[in-house]
Amino acid sequence: MAFHTYCLYHLKMNLRHHLRGMFHGLKEKLITLFGKCAYAPTEETFHQCLVELKTEGGSRVEKFLDDIPYDHWSNAYFRGQRFGEMWPNAAEFFNSWIREERQLPITKLIDSVRIKLMRKIAKRRELVNKWNGLICPKIETKLHDGFNTSRPWIVSSSGNDVYELKGFPYAHAIGVIQKSGHDLSLFVDQYFYVQSYRESYSFSIYPVPSIWKPDCNVDGDNEVVLPPLSKKQPGRPNKKRIRSNGEKVRQITCSRCGKVDNHNKKSCNEAL
């Protein structure tokens, strides 16, 4: 029953591929408009941007939009809470985090990932137990930065209530909340509270006594389900994920070998 959303980065790459052959300047303008639609905080703002996008892009853009429901890519129609996240960074990080373990046999892979998660959860639990505030330190820092930014601003009351977007108030809202006498922390979503962080890592992953398959008593009339027959594909197995259309690899300079590539000193395999 979870709400699902698409990665905005990959949607933009797909749109760029869909608009191939179009004048470069117009193509980039349409991709920018598409991003504005995705980030629009209200349905009214979303449809204003959408009208401009369809007007500029014509039938090619309309055909692209027909295949992606609004609630899977726009902030205004998403039925859950995205907290401002428009990219699947967690999945990318996890794939990178288990890069070495992915080459292991399946049973060893599962047990190795279990151990890494067990240690990570224990480390996070130890960290959060040192926090004494109400809100997580990074969000607390953002609140202070927003407050310092809004201090010289003049706030004029119109009698309306105050609302926040994405579960976290930005500088304008922070300035209004502070000068209206309300508790700023009450306008921050519970997701950013220390208690929520603590509950996320409150459970433990226990060691598994054995990774071997347990004994199974099979009656004479029962059939044993065997694994399917499979044929090993020719060539060396691909160890890297397939990149989407137009996805670029960020080039960095390795501090170990000095080469400009997509690796750093930790993953460097160059001979010195």
Name its key features.
mainly alpha; 2 strands; two-stranded antiparallel sheet; about 270 residues; globular
Would you write up a description of this structure?
With 272 residues, this protein is mainly alpha-helical. Among the domains are: 8-72; 89-128; 137-192, no CATH class. 42% of the residues lie in helices and 1% in strands. The protein contains eight helices and two strands. Strands 1-2 form a two-stranded antiparallel sheet. A hairpin with a 6-residue loop joins strand 1 and strand 2. The longest helix is centred in the N-terminal third of the chain and has 24 residues, at 43-66. It is globular. The model has no long low-confidence stretch (mean pLDDT 83).
What sequence of helices (H) and strands (E) makes up the elements? HHHHHHHHEE
Percent in helix: 40-55%
- Derived from helix and strand composition plus strand pairing, the structural class reads mainly alpha
- How much of the polypeptide forms β-strand, as a percent range? under 5%
Terminal Cα span: 52 Å
Contiguous runs where pLDDT drops below 50 for at least 5 residues: none
Total helical segments: 8
User: What is the residue-averaged pLDDT?
Assistant: 83
What's the main sheet like?
Answer: 2 strands, antiparallel
Number of strands: 2
Strand order of the largest sheet: 1-2
Question: Could you say which overall geometry the principal axes of the C-alpha atoms support?
Answer: globular
Architecture blueprint of SSEs:
Blueprint: H1 8-18, H2 24-39, H3 43-66, H4 89-97, H5 106-128, H6 137-150, H7 171-179, H8 194-200, E1 252-253, E2 260-261
Antiparallel strand pairs: 1-2
